[in-house]
Amino acid sequence: MAGLKSLAKDTVIYGLSSIVGRFLNYLLVPLYTAKMSAASGGYGVVTNVYSYTALLLVILVYGMETTLFRYSTKEGEDPKRVYSTILTSVGFTSLLFVALVLAFLSPISGAMGYAEHPEYIGVMAVVVAMDAFQAIPFSFLRQQKKALKFAALKFLFIVINISLNLLYFVALPALYVSYPDAVGTIYSPEVGVGYVFYLNLVCTSIVMLCLIPELRGFKWVFDWSLFKRMIAYSSPILLLGIAGVLNQNADKIMFPFLYEQPDAKSQLGIYGAASKIAMIMAMILQAFRYAYEPFVFDKSRDKDSKETYAVTMKYFVIFTLLAFLVVVAYLDIIKYIIAPDYWEGLKVVPIVMVAEIMMGVYFNLSFWYKLTEQTIWGAVFSGIGCAVLLGVNVLFVPQYGYMACAWGGVAGYGTAMLLSYFVGQKKYPIAYPVKTMLGYVTLTCVLFVAMKAVQECGMWIQLAVNTALLVVFTAVVVKTENFSLNKVLKKFKR
Predict the structure, then answer these.
(1) What was the pLDDT predicted at 71?
(2) What is the pTM of this model?
C-alpha cells in the first residue's frame, strides 16, 4: 500500500501538467469561439479536424506506449533495446504516413470535405506524425519516473501555443487594420482558421527539438525478434485504442455526414465547444492515467496489489463524482469559457461528463487483461462499446442532432465498462467495493436532481444551494471514509 504515496505524488505532478495546462489551454476556447461565430462553422472545422487527428495518433502509436512499460520491466528483456526498437518502428511508420498523405493530398482532402483547403490536412498530417513519434520518448520519461521533465515539456507546448494564438488571433488582426503593409508580411486575414493548424505545427516542432536528449545515450538498434513479440502484445491494444478513440471522436467525425443540414458545421462547433467544458473530467482522467499505468505494472509483483487496485478504484470514483457535481453546481459561471452563441449546447455537459466517468472506470478495470497479457479482451470490449456508440449515432443523429452524440458516448462506454467488469471478475477477480461505490453514485444522482430543481431560482440562490449540496457530498464522504483514510495514511508513514 505504501506505493500509493508515490502514485499520489506523480498524479499531482502529472495533474499540474494536465489540469493546469489544459486550463491554460482553455484560454483558446473563448478565444476561438469569440473570433469564430457559431454560425460561421469555423470552430466546427477545428473540432472535426482534431477528431481525425486523435484517431490517427492512436493508429500511428499502435499500442507501443503500454508495450514500452510492459517490456521494459519484463524479466529477461533489455530496457534500452526495447526503447530503441519501439522508437525505430514508430519513427518509420510515422514518416511513411506523412509521405502517403502528401502524395494523395487532394483526394484525401476531398473525401474529408476539405477540397478547398487541402493545406489543413497536409499540415495536420505532419503534426500527428510528430506527435506519434514524441509519444514514445514521453512514455520513456514516465517509465523513468521523470515526471517533472514530462510536465515541463507539456507546459512549454501550451505556453507557446497560447502565446502564438493570442498573437495571431488578437494582436496581429488589430495591428493589421492600421498597418496592413507591415503586418501583412507575417499575417493574412484570409488564412483564418488555418492559423490554428499552422501554429500547432510550430509548437510541436519546438517540443520535438526539446526531446532530442531522450533520443541519445543508447545504441540505436532494431531487434526484429523482439519487435514481433511486442507487436503481438500491442496489436490488441491498438484495436482497443482505436475503439476507445472512436468512442470519443466518432460522433464528431461522422456528424457532418449524418446530420445533413446546412448548419451541420455550426451545430458541430456548438457541440464541440460545450463538450470542452465537460473535458474537465478528461483532464483528471489523463493525469491519473499518466501516473497509474506505470504504477500498476510496478505494483503487480506485490502481494497486496489487488487490494491496492480496489482501494484506488474507490477513491477514483469518489473524486470524479465530486468533480461532476462541482461542474454542474457552477455551470452558470463556468459557461463563460465559451461565447454566448454556443451556450445552447450546455445541456450536453452533464451527459458527456458521465460518459467520461464511465471511461475512467473502464480504464481502471482494463489492467486485468494487460497484466495477464490477454489484451485481446480489451479489443473485444472496446469494439462492442464502439459498435453501440456508432449505432446510436447512425440511428439518432439525423433526428436529434448532437444530443444523440452525447448519449451515444454514455451507451458505448457503459457497455464496455460492464463487460470488462463481469469478465474480469472471472479471469482476474478483484474485490472492488461495489456497494460503497454505488452508494456514492446514488447520492450523486440525488444531489444532481436537487441542483436541477433550483435551476430557475436565480443565480445567487442557485449557487448557494448548490454549494450546500457539495458540502453534503463532502461530509458524507469524510464520515464514511474516515477510518479507511486514516488506515491508508498510517501505511503511507511506514
Answers:
(1) 85
(2) 0.72
